[in-house]
Amino acid sequence: KELIMASFTPKPLHLAKNMNELNSKSSGSKLQGQTAKMLCKSSEKLYLAAYDKYIEGDQEHAYILLLRYLDVLQAIRNSKEYKTNKKQFDKMTDATKFKG
User: Fold this and answer.
1) CA dihedral defined by 31, 21, 67, 41, rounded to 10 degrees?
2) Which among 38, 55, 91, 99 is least surrounded, fewest beta carbons within 10 Å?
């Protein structure tokens, strides 16, 4: 999916009262013990869900999902599997593959 500037009315703020509260809602993911391949699948789902929420006008939810997506990418890059096969995992987590 190509990220486009959709003409929509953003939903009113409903998940948090401020950025600190919003940021805290993105934490708490259980990433330890997951394989890098499983995390890659999760990252794709998070990215696509964030895109859908953005298109729906729910910018808060999209923001939370994108923060989780970044946490998952960081966990992938910190994994032993990533260190042994960087090219494969970089290709699997490349967000440009969602265009079109």
Assistant:
1) 40
2) 99
The dihedral region occupied by 81, where left means phi > 0, alpha psi between -120 and 50, and beta the remainder, is alpha
38 and 46 Cβ atoms separated by less than 8 Å: no
Distance of CA 59 to CAs 34, 46, 86, Å? 28, 14, 32
pTM: 0.80
pLDDT tops 50 at residue 1? no
**Contact at 8 Å (CB) between 54 and 62?**
yes
Distance CA 66, CA 63 (A): 5
- Encoded tokens for 17: 């009262």
Residue pointed to by tokens 């440009």:
96
Element (H, E) at 90: helix 86-92
